[in-house]
Design brief:
The protein has helices at about 1-20, 25-35, 40-45, 55-70, 75-120, 130-145, 150-155, 155-170, 175, 180-205, 215-250, 255-265, 280-335, 340-380, 410-420, 425-435, 440-450, 455-465, 500-505, 540-545, 550-560, 565-570, 580-585, 615-630, 640-645; strands spanning about 480, 525-530, 530-535, 675-680, 690-695. The chain has about 700 residues and is mainly alpha-helical. Strands 1-2-3 form a 3-stranded antiparallel β-sheet. Helix 17 packs parallel to helix 20. The termini are far apart. Belongs to the CFAP206 family.
Length: about 700
């Protein structure tokens, strides 16, 4: 799969670059995996899948062009939803790796100092300088272990931490410390770090220090609460947008049975055999896709809000316990000059541990803030959205039918807005979608509470007027109705992330298989089926689930198989392993090679230079005077045959060059011969011996 996916991503990226479009490789890979999961690749090239084996180059080119055409349309709500899913997962991965890297660096630094302190040759020498050097090393190890990095570089913070350490571990205790084993030294070093942190916290509470400590809970809690308010505001806005889109979808004419059958689900009543107009079908598909996009944004915001809420609750508990311990330390110390260490050391140790937990929550707050900024940027409405401008409400008209017997004032306002062709307000849309339990549903719930599950399902269908037999799947497991604790907020921990299973698994999808996401209505209550609790958006959806819960959930699975983008907002596993975003990110972890060529023009900038341009005014004046003077001149010329013969002509003749013939002469050259001999070896007694050197220059060319 990895090789096939990378080849397709390379081809699609190359095509997008040639078109001048900038795309993210992770988005291209995720869209490719989604298209493979929904069977679109097999429609392009038969018997082709990412996991089926190596794909040919021709198939890669076809699939790459198809994926490039999809990701190139950045205004498509489906592509925006895919970008939101994969890029948020990339952001989570990057922040997790960043925290792991920082933690690893801090642990590595602390480990080096611990080995230096607890090593066999930690104390070198028995001099005061050696003891002082070792004590500074212990102080640095305590600062790094406690997360007080400021005490290493800042003199004021260093002096404060040293004073706290000397009150617990004076220099005189070094001699005994070095006699301990390595494990005992490390244990005592960690305990010293917590106790010193607790002492610094107590000093800061008394107003006598605290410069070595990082930001306290007093700065964390307001930031976390502000971020939680921002996320809650985004949840409300996205929920309102979701309600507006659902009301706009209800304005469209009912989907004909033929179109519903083509979409793979039962449709509403319409014209006999009539097909849905192309513009209405496209409008329905766009609304379904935008509802899916808003549903994904809502699920991510709620997940981030729940995570931040848990962290804020944990931080508040830690801060409350820390304040109680500070009061206990103040009572134990009081005005005494000396306090038993068995009394205060455990309190200081616990204070240090609580502060470490708060510091970790502060780091996570920074991560959540970055994720919130990333999600806010990804969830913004594109210019082509039906909610981005006023023209979004000018869709094909049609009165919405909710299936409830009560007609509210909000419903009349929505109907009047629909007739006027304007989008409804968010408050009116939410109020119109918030149904109450009707008589038929109440009767079904009463029968459900008083009879076995099959009888309850049959009674609910009988009250609904269908008269059909109960499905065998409704027999097990049992259904249980749960009354709502609040009529404005959903119960936490709902299955399908709080979306209605009836809207996804029963209502017909739009063209392209995009099912409808509808938020559960807390006024209707909940149904427990098995080990999960489901919420519902309407009475009809609740009755359909009571009659056949297994069939509705099977319809949800079919909708997810037709559109894999539904898996993440519903909190369900992907329909195919290749559509899992974690597997896609793991497959794209290696280097990606893209073949791409570019052509360089001869001249990047065309030059329009006038070579005859003259900037000097006096030169222009001289040229003008010369031209004016030339206009006053006249040229006269006359020539006759007689004057031609009177002309003097001179002719110059060049004599030919004398030719010389040279004959080849053979010559040779020899080096002089050098001779040396000894003379005077014979003769009279007065003859002296000497060495004679001769140089015979014979056979030279000049001698011939």
């Amino acid at each position: 799969m990895d090789d096939n996916l990378k080849r397709i991503v390379s081809e699609a990226t190359r095509v997008c670059r040639e078109r001048g479009q900038k795309v993210d490789p992770y988005v291209v890979a995720y869209v490719t995996s989604l298209e493979d999961a929904r069977g679109a690749l097999r429609q392009l090239v038969p018997d082709v899948s990412l996991e089926a084996g190596p794909i040919s180059s021709e198939a890669v080119a076809v699939i790459g062009g198809h994926v490039a055409s999809l990701v190139g349309n950045s205004r498509d709500p489906r592509i925006r939803t895919a970008m939101m899913q994969v890029l948020m997962e990339v952001a989570y991965k990057q922040q997790r790796e960043l925290i792991e890297k920082e933690t690893a660096e801090q642990q590595e630094r602390a480990g080096m100092l611990q080995r230096a302190v607890a090593g066999p040759r930690a104390l070198r020498g028995n001099t005061p300088d050696a003891y002082d050097k070792f004590y500074k090393l212990v102080l640095e190890a305590v600062a790094v272990e406690a997360g007080l990095d400021l005490a290493v570089s800042d003199p004021t913070a260093n002096a404060e931490l040293r004073a706290a350490l000397e009150s617990v571990f004076p220099v005189s205790a070094v001699a005994r410390f070095v006699t301990l084993s390595e494990g005992e030294r490390l244990t005592q070093l960690a305990e010293l770090a917590r106790i010193c942190t607790g002492i610094c916290l107590y000093n800061r509470s008394c107003g006598a220090g605290g410069s070595a400590l990082p930001a306290s809970a007093a700065s964390y809690l307001p930031q976390a609460q502000r971020l939680l308010r921002d996320i809650s505001r985004c949840c409300v806005e996205v929920n309102e947008q979701l309600a507006q889109l659902q009301v706009m979808l209800g304005r469209l004419p009912p989907q004909p049975p033929a179109a519903a059958a083509a979409a793979g689900a039962e449709g509403e009543e319409g014209a006999d055999g009539a097909e849905e107009p192309a513009d209405v079908a496209e409008r329905r598909r766009q609304l379904h896709a935008e509802i899916l996009n808003r549903g994904q944004a809502l699920q991510l915001f709620e997940s981030l809000s729940a995570d931040l809420g848990e962290g804020l609750e944990a931080a508040q508990q830690l801060d409350a316990e820390l304040e109680q311990l500070l009061v206990a330390v103040a009572q134990a110390v009081g005005g005494s000059a000396a306090v038993p260490k068995d009394t205060v050391y455990p309190l200081f140790d616990r204070l240090g541990a609580l502060h470490a937990g708060l510091h970790q929550e502060l780091r996570l707050l920074v991560v959540r803030q970055r994720l919130y900024d990333e999600l806010t940027e990804l969830s913004v409405l594109v210019p082509g959205s039906v909610l981005a401008g006023g023209e979004g409400g000018a869709a094909a008209g049609g009165k919405k039918t909710t299936g409830t017997s009560t007609a509210s004032a909000a419903g009349s306002r929505v109907a009047s807005a629909s007739a006027a062709g304007q989008p409804p307000s968010a408050a009116a849309a939410i109020e119109a979608l918030a149904e109450q339990l009707d008589e038929v549903t109440l009767a079904g719930l009463d029968a459900l509470a008083s009879a076995p599950p099959p009888a309850a399902a049959a009674a609910a269908e009988g009250e609904d007027g269908g008269g059909a037999a109960a499905s065998p799947a409704a027999a097990a497991p049992a259904l249980e109705y749960i009354r709502p604790a609040s009529h404005s907020q959903l119960q936490p921990g709902l299955a399908l992330a709080g979306f209605c299973p009836g809207a996804v698994g029963v209502q017909p999808p739009a063209a392209g298989g995009v099912a409808l996401l509808r938020r559960a209505n807390p006024r209707l209550g909940y149904l427990a089926f098995g080990d999960k609790v489901y919420g519902f958006s309407s009475n009809a959806a609740m009755r359909s689930f009571m009659s056949d819960p297994a069939g509705v959930l099977a319809g949800v699975g079919g909708a997810v198989a037709a559109e894999p983008l539904l898996a993440r907002p519903l909190g369900l596993p992907p329909p195919a392993p290749s559509a899992d975003v974690h597997i896609v990110l793991q497959a794209m972890s290696g280097p990606l090679k893209v073949d791409f060529g570019c052509q360089t023009p001869v001249h990047f900038l065309e030059r329009h230079i006038d070579k005859d341009y003259e900037w000097n005014v006096w030169a222009l004046r001289r040229r003008a005077l010369a031209l004016a003077n030339l206009r006053n001149k006249a040229t006269h010329s006359a020539q006759t045959a007689e004057s031609h013969f009177k002309r003097e002509n001179e002719t110059q003749v060049w004599k030919p060059r004398e030719a010389v013939v040279q004959t080849r002469v053979t010559k040779g050259q020899a080096m002089p011969r050098k001779l040396q001999y000894v003379a005077g070896l014979r003769g009279a007694a007065d003859v002296k011996m000497n060495v004679v050197r001769l140089e015979l220059d014979l056979g030279q060319p000049h001698q011939h």
